[in-house]
Design goal:
Length: 298
């Protein structure tokens, strides 16, 4: 049986914190939004809200789905930290440690591995990939109910892609320039148009930039398919609110695979194979609730 748990969804621009209902589901009444500023302010605000609400609605664990890279090795001195993020001021920030004094078990995972686990469980799939496309691009993998860890966690968005014909954008990843993230994050799209990422919503669906953008996300999908044979790819994040992107990505994936994976999931039912989350914007916070359930002593 699920219990009352708390969830923190840590994003590069905003964080959401919530306490679940008795069944471990989201409830509007017990949720709180925080704009991501400095680590001290952001984690402090989240901590204080949870400390205040704990007496009113005692939760048994906290699940944190966090932007990365993060340290998931429990034997490491920096377990629970954000590590080499390009986000200014957030390198080597102890996220898990900020909540130890609340005296409940804490589950920590990436903001893409956790949704992959929740999506696979929701749909009864044995595996799922979750890609987020927004300020950054990330990919998480869950196989047989478990998130993929190892050296670190999947960082598939930093694969170097082939450039689409006519696209001379040099890329914006501070580490690799023209990796998939550097070619397809919000800044990359905005740079091609000489606008700010916040102005992207003024660009119409039929602008050619979306087809260019989708080509890079499609290469990530194709790499995941070849490497993992994953059962489904779910794509979320701010940019994916533009539904036309799904159409472009699916078309490019079919063209890239070029008939090699002759399977109904790819050739006939790709709309269900590469799809948005069933939970919409709640996937992040629900995945953190689900994480929290895994560390409750029953
Ligand atoms: Zn990169």
């Amino acid at each position: 049986m699920p219990s009352i748990v708390a969830a923190i969804e840590m994003g590069g621009t905003g964080c959401k914190v919530a306490i679940s209902d008795d069944n471990g589901q989201f409830t509007e009444q017990y949720s709180f939004q925080v704009v991501t500023t400095t680590p001290e302010n952001t984690l402090g605000e989240i901590h204080d809200w949870l400390a205040l609400k704990k007496s009113e609605r005692p939760f048994l664990a906290i699940g944190i789905a966090c932007f990365g890279p993060i340290d998931l090795d429990k034997k490491s001195k920096t377990y629970g930290y954000i590590t080499t993020t390009p986000k200014p001021g957030w390198q080597y920030v102890n996220v898990v440690g900020a909540f130890h004094d609340l005296n409940v078990p804490i589950a920590f995972e990436t903001d893409v591995n956790a949704p992959a686990m929740t999506e696979a469980a929701l749909r009864g799939d044995t595996s799922a990939a979750y890609i987020t496309v927004g300020t950054g691009v990330g990919v998480g993998l869950a196989i047989e109910g478990r998130p993929i860890h190892g050296l670190l966690h999947p960082e598939g968005a930093h694969i170097k892609p082939e450039h689409i014909s006519g696209d001379d954008y040099p890329g914006c990843c501070p580490y690799h320039n023209s990796c998939i993230e550097g070619m397809s994050c919000a800044k990359a799209v905005a740079d091609r148009l000489n606008i700010l990422p916040s102005q992207l919503n003024t660009i119409p669906d039929d602008h050619p930039v979306w087809n260019i953008h989708a080509y890079y996300i499609a290469q990530l999908c194709a790499s995941i398919i070849y490497l993992t044979s994953i059962q489904r790819i779910i794509i979320g994040g701010g940019l994916m609110k533009r539904q036309i992107l799904f159409k472009h990505i699916r078309k490019h994936v079919q063209q890239i695979l070029n008939g090699y994976m002759d399977l109904p999931a790819i050739t006939q039912n790709i709309d269900e194979y590469i799809c948005p989350s069933q939970l919409g914007d709640l996937i992040g916070i629900q995945s953190a609730f689900d994480l929290a359930q895994t560390v409750i002593q029953k």
